[in-house]
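Holo prediction — guanine.
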Amino acid sequence: MILLDGKKTSQQVKEEIAAEVKAIRESGGKTPHLAAVIVGNNGASMTYVNHKVKACQMVGFNSSLIHLNEYITEEELLIKIEGLNKNEEIDGFIVQLPLPDHIDEQVILLAIDPIKDVDGFHPTNVGKMALEFPTFIPATPFGILELLKRYSISTDGQHVVVVGRSNIVGKPISVLLSQKADYGNATVTITHSKTRNLTDITKTADIIIMALGVPGFLKGDMVKDGAVIIDVGITRVKDETKKSGFRLSGDVDFETVSVKASHITPVPGGVGPMTIAMLLKNTLLTRTMKRI
Ligand code: GUN
């Protein structure tokens, strides 16, 4: 079994980005600048956003963290977004999800200028992705593709089973892997909480992408020998033995699945760090992205 080391691979991607930033600076170009908006104090979201800001520092980007009160109104948040859209210092920005219930996520995502939408969540960019126009690929699917590429795991003609249908992971990775492209050409089955006989389906998969958010859901008896397992789940599970009071758990029962898998991502240290690296990559891509 080969461990797909997202920590090491993301480090390589970040080193490449850092070299590009250095070259931009040396040729008199402007330092890339990523901003992140977070609303409220959700512990997991704050950790992710802080990782994103720290990663900016590592590659030589400028970064701004805009931490807003959880009671901010939708109108006030829209004004902040308009400010970021207009701010020429900022190349790209993200609004960390989920947002508090009183704020309509769709209204907020629609307000982000697609040319600065480095998450690739704006409907214009989702449409472009689906139609294979140049655009920002959402960072988590982008990170999965990059990990497969760097470990030379071909998806060509493979049966990929995606478990989970979220806008952030399940939907976009299904579209990307079925496209006529390098690291596409897969036969994709998208499954979810209402899928019947899920085990019958996962057992036929050459590659399984778990993006359900249910700790330890995928067990060894649901997987065929030699399958490639990508675990996108990252849930905080109570653990009194840890100083923080929790540990991070993936959607895969690592103990029983890893003995059958040919390749598997760990949690933490798999897809998570790749997501951050690819967000930085998207921020660099703002330099060449055309408004079409
Ligand atoms: N919440 C979970 N993943 C993501 C992500 O990739 N981007 C944003 N903005 N919010 C998230």
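READOUT: The pocket of guanine is lined by residues 94-97, 119, 139-140, 168, 275 (CB under 6 Å).
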